[in-house]
């Protein structure tokens, strides 16, 4: 029994350790956005379905000896992709669908090992039950979830800070080889004892009671709802804050914790406790969607509490519906299939059918409907028909009211929306303010953060406004060399093209933009690109990947203005990224970084970056003076003494806050946005 438990523990640990590890590897190649994790979760859940399906069919149609022989073959096949090395396989094509590219990359990198690990828990539980090594195989399932939780919590706090990504991949590969040895041992132990203990494989004509179709549907819908809740909450946090392993791992850990508690013993899930908390959690979610924004800490706490309660109800009800041990592989297969359906809903279907984020409202509504249906079934059993009908009607009315409230919260009541679109990189909204007046202007918003605006009347529409107004950091950087002929200007992030208005007729501007919808919006709804006299070249794709492939560009000015909602993508602020920028910068060139953010103060990080790389730095702040001139914060980094000696710059430097304590420089292997929280 110890060998079976150790094998299941190791497989689950590896299964969930590889998820943040491999996703962190590929995150920079696809822009560092929220959707990378959601698509990766689709792959993980789909592999889980494949693994559970294989385990179910193997147990149903093969004897124990043939099961073990077949699984040993798959174990040996998995060694083909060991050691894992994703960086050697990737060639990002900005013109292709990023979702399909991520799925293809993951299949080629970890497809077979992940499939084998996915099949291990249900298969070995069936082996242990078949040879009478355990009387309660569901306890082994709880053990696998404990291992998964340990893997997830250890990654952001131990593995990620202490080891670089290549070392993590190597250690994982070595541990996987150990797992294969353990699993083969269990296979031989099972095969040797199968003649004494194991019954013949089940057939369609045996005496196993048939599971009602309603139970099959609930086995599917309850986990689908839980995974939809998981990914919806994760998306909500990462699009408002930043996409990092910690904010992937925390919701997933809460989700797994509910699995562990619910599947350990029936006594932990009590309806009389969790159903009132369920109603409270729905109210909290509505408050976060419709009410005043909370600070970062309370936002995370409230979302984690709501996720725990709602998933606990889903998984508690799922455990109450569990079948007998000889049907567990089919049960696990439906659970995995439900998880894959939830992942597909969030990562594939919703970007196609919706131009905004409404997954959280859908998930909460699904949970409400399922709970009410289960309670109606409970009412029929526990009370008389006469008393049960009014209760059922009350439950139906209550559920309908809650669903209607969530539907209302999903509707966009904002007036003067000109255009809205959603793709892999997020939701882009173009809106109009002061319509029909001389002060009319259009603005662009990504998620909850605005990314520039432009007046609609001449001559004001030619002028830079918002974060780029006169006196802003980019104005200082551009104006300093305004008389220099044939300047070369590089920009990461197009936005609506406001910064390009500072370029002259002899200047050449090269803009790196990963989101094709941003380019389309800048060309269709705004005129900065059309009005400029500069030579502008747009490069579609991730900026770092593009810059790594190019010869030194000798930029005189390099502007970093890339945001994923409220935060700059992490991979654009690491030491390796800035070393790459310097490679493409002239010796006296200037780097200007827009760091305006609701939640994060990037100034300490960039000041430390400047010290480390031998650059002088200054924070240039600009107060908000009107609806069209927004407050902005720009960091300027340069080796240009003449620029830094300007009176205005020296005054700004004297005003810089001294908040450099305990700021660790970001690298591709380590980054902690939480040290920058305001």
Topology:
Layout: H1 2-26, H2 35-61, H3 64-78, H4 98-130, H5 137-162, H6 165-197, H7 213-240, H8 245-264, H9 271-290, H10 296-320, H11 328-353, H12 359-382, H13 385-410, E1 417-423, E2 426-433, E3 441-446, E4 449-455, H14 473-480, E5 488-492, E6 508-513, H15 516-524, H16 528-531, E7 535-540, H17 543-549, E8 555-560, H18 575-583, E9 585-594, H19 603-612, E10 616-622, E11 632-638, H20 641-644, H21 647-654
Helix pairs in contact: 1-2, 1-4, 1-5, 1-6, 2-4, 2-11, 3-4, 3-6, 4-5, 4-6, 4-11, 5-8, 7-8, 7-10, 7-11, 7-12, 8-10, 9-10, 10-12, 12-13
How many helical elements? Answer: 21
Largest sheet: 7 strands, mixed
- Strand order in the largest sheet: 7-6-5-8-9-11-10
Structural class: alpha/beta
Uncertain ranges: 379-385
* Radius of gyration, whole Å: 28 Å
Q: What's the shape?
A: globular
Structure described in brief:
With 678 residues, this protein is of the alpha/beta class.
List keywords for this structure.
678 residues, alpha/beta, seven-stranded mixed β-sheet, four-stranded antiparallel β-sheet, globular
